[in-house]
Amino acid sequence: MTIAKALTIAGSDCGGGAGIQADLKSFQERDVFGMSVITVLTAQNTLGVHGVYPQTLEAIGAQIDAIFQDMGTDAVKTGMLFSDEIVHLVVEKLQQYKAKNIVVDPVMIAKGGAPLLQKQAMDTVKSRLLPIATVITPNLPEACEILGLDSINTLEEMKKAAKALRELGPKYVVLKGGHLEGSNEAVDILFDGEEYFYFTAKRIDTIHTHGTGCTFAAAITAELAKGKSVHEAVGTAKQFIQAAIEESLCIGKGIGPTKHSA
Ligand code: PLP
Hints:
- The chain has a single domain, classed as 3-Layer(aba) Sandwich (UDP-N-acetylmuramoyl-L-alanine:D-glutamate ligase), CATH 3.40.1190.
- By secondary structure, it is an alpha/beta fold.
- It has 8 helices and 9 strands.
- The site of pyridoxal-5'-phosphate (PLP) has 18 residues, from strand 1, strand 2 and helix 7.
- The site of pyridoxal-5'-phosphate has 18 residues, from strand 1, strand 2 and helix 7.
- Its EC number is 2.7.1.49, 2.7.4.7.
- This is Hydroxymethylpyrimidine/phosphomethylpyrimidine kinase.
- It holds the Pfam family Phos_pyr_kin.
């Protein structure tokens, strides 16, 4: 039996809601064989991130080598990379192995406020990681950080930001509008360099959204691994994350995970 294979290169969330754990659960739900390279261990629960423990470059490089020298991948997702050195290493390895279908979730800060990417890594993310991406999936605060904007407040501003992000090199930009205020819809914009596509869903009033960014990007990665187009993959991932938020779980004392990441 052949099965599509997807790899996540990301941080571990021991609480099971985000990061590697959310990615592998999402791959499984989308019927894709999941593999993982752990960049950073986090000690984390629904109350927040309590510790961040980057792995050595040797350990990260060896994990990537092990996967590409044997199984290979149909799609790769990057999540929490944390430091400048880790971003450099991951880019070099993905280039060395000619990885295809690269989904970059430019993870920067947790919903609880913990930094997941060091400030000094931002330039490398912009100059080296975004240009090798097939798809990038920033939310509005991440887009502002990358583009040096104070805020993005309207759909028109989202379109402009998506265009500016694409100029940094990725083939497709998915700009997630979940943080846009004043609307009862959550609109994500996909920009392919020519046209804008809108993916709209009803906004759900819940605090249980821990891991939604990881889960969404992982679902896109899984669909690309199966050979779907970027447009199809984003449409499927949007439905998947919507269902996950609707069925979110009350686990722990704080911001809980969504069903599919828990
Ligand atoms: N922890 C890890 C390891 C992550 O990769 C992420 C997001 O990508 C988070 C935490 C943040 O989760 P959230 O902001 O959804 O609570």
